Amino acid sequence: MDSTITPMLTISHQYGSGGSLIARDLGQRLSWPVWDKEIVHRIATEYAVAEEYVEEKDERVDSFIERVARILSTSGFEAAYNVPPPLWLSDTQLAHMTSTIIKEITEEGKVIIVGRGGNHVLAGRPKTLHVFVFAAHEARVQRVMAVERLAHSAAERRIAGMDKLRADYVHTFYHADWRDPTRYHLVVDSAVWGESGTADLIAGALEHMS
């Protein structure tokens, strides 16, 4: 293996499992940049698109109704965000932009990519640890209720919706099951290990990989 290749980490996670916070914890421990919503900001900056617009479409696939609305609409949502031409980014265009940005980030090495199919984009890169963080359904519900101050039923709907968006995104662009354990090197239950314990496990796995 080329000794000049620097290690990297991708973290995919179920909504409500604490994956983003675990990534931030690891970023502080390792002094590695974390690319999560930062990817949205970079896409908006590099491609001169309103950040709110990219955020709205991040990690999702347009529904049939949205595609029809995009074809028929001449104002409305896109005008509200003052998006420069082209007024609409297709899901395919945004996925390509995201993949391109991730590959550019890869050149820097020693970074953490959160979600957005990072484990698929970097599947062939050596010394790259791919992690999936999950938790039992009720543990996720309780976390979302506490963090977002939602009722139990609303938290369940939020989790179900986010799971579907992420599953559809990976299935559409990478023809894979988002939760397939064979797509990852390490799968961790954050409800069992806690955020700090999960970060410990991932840090230990990185040491062995590097």
Characterise this structure.
- The chain has one domain: 3-Layer(aba) Sandwich (Rossmann fold).
- Helix 1 (19-30) runs parallel beside helix 10 (190-209).
- The model is unreliable at 62-87 (pLDDT under 50).
- A five-stranded parallel beta sheet has the order 2-3-1-4-5.
- It has 210 residues and is α/β, with parallel strands linked by helices.
- The protein has helices spanning 19-30, 37-46, 51-57, 64-72, 77-80, 91-106, 118-121, 137-148, 152-174, 190-209, and strands at 8-13, 34-35, 112-114, 128-134, 186-189.
- It is 56% helix and 10% strand.
Summarize the structure.
With 210 residues, the chain is of the alpha/beta class. The protein is built from ten helices and five strands, in the order E-H-E-H-H-H-H-H-E-H-E-H-H-E-H.
- Unreliable stretches (pLDDT < 50, length at least 5) are 62-87
The CATH level-2 architecture is identified as: 3-Layer(aba) Sandwich
Strand order of the largest sheet: 2-3-1-4-5
CATH class: Alpha Beta
Give the DSSP E fraction (strand runs of 2 or more residues).
Answer: 5-15%
Rounded to an integer, what's the Rg over CA atoms? 18 Å
The count of DSSP E runs of length 2 or more, i.e. the number of strands, is: 5
**Helix/strand-derived class?**
alpha/beta
Give the SSE string.
EHEHHHHHEHEHHEH
Biggest sheet architecture: 5 strands, parallel
End-to-end separation:
10 Å
For this structure, the CATH topology is: Rossmann fold
Number of domains: 1
